[in-house]
Design brief:
This protein has 265 residues and is mostly beta strands. The chain contains no helices and 20 strands. The two termini are 26 Å apart.
Length: 265
Amino acid sequence: MHEPVRVRTGVLVGAVLTVVALATACTAPAAQDHHSSDDMPGMGVPMPSLSPTPTLAAAAPGGTGLAGAVGGYTFVPAAGTVPAGAPFSFQVTGPDGHVVTRYQPYLSKLLLCYVIRADLTGFRYVDAAMRQDGVWIAQLPPLTSGSYRMYVTFATPDATQGTPLVYDLSQPFTVSGPAGASTPDSAPAASAGSPATVDGYAVTLGGSAVPGQQVPLTVTVTKAGVPVESLDRYLDGYAQVSAFREGDMARASIHTIGGSAGAAS
């Protein structure tokens, strides 16, 4: 199994861009990877065979991802402080106040989790597994102590039990423990236009963000100066891109359009 390349690089207008791409050395197009219960060993909840994500509307169009509740759905962490390296447990309650146990598959997952440090110097995509009672368990990496925010994205029917909508919720939390050395993910973000490098892969952001406008940006992946021409599909796409605004940590999910020669827009 290939490890995803997680890279942070700067975006103009004081944001941090996070790119998650899965690269391979093969030249043939990669088959789509649908995640199943094998991704969640021992959790006892059978995962469906996930099909490509249908187009779903956002529950809060134009939202910042900073709300803990939208449309009656609430992100409820079990605790506001967790020890470094400990599991982070949470649940989602619905408009009726009950814990949600059924989700619409979205981006080949039932729920997506992102953790980012408040000063934007650390980011992780975290796998979470759901128990039979609807409690989710996310095993956090050994993060340094400090303030963080967890973002969850999922799809589930709206309050009228109609067409599923996509919900982006988040809650702040604190990692306890003595101040220590930075983790591998704790490093200053690269400046805008400069490549960020992880495991030999360099990711470069092209284009300029403009406040209040939709503008195209390009993301180019290279290795040893050569464009990576084959990317495996990951979470229903070739690259997952999120932008976090400096200051309030508002999040925007950026939709990518496939690309060739290691580039996506």
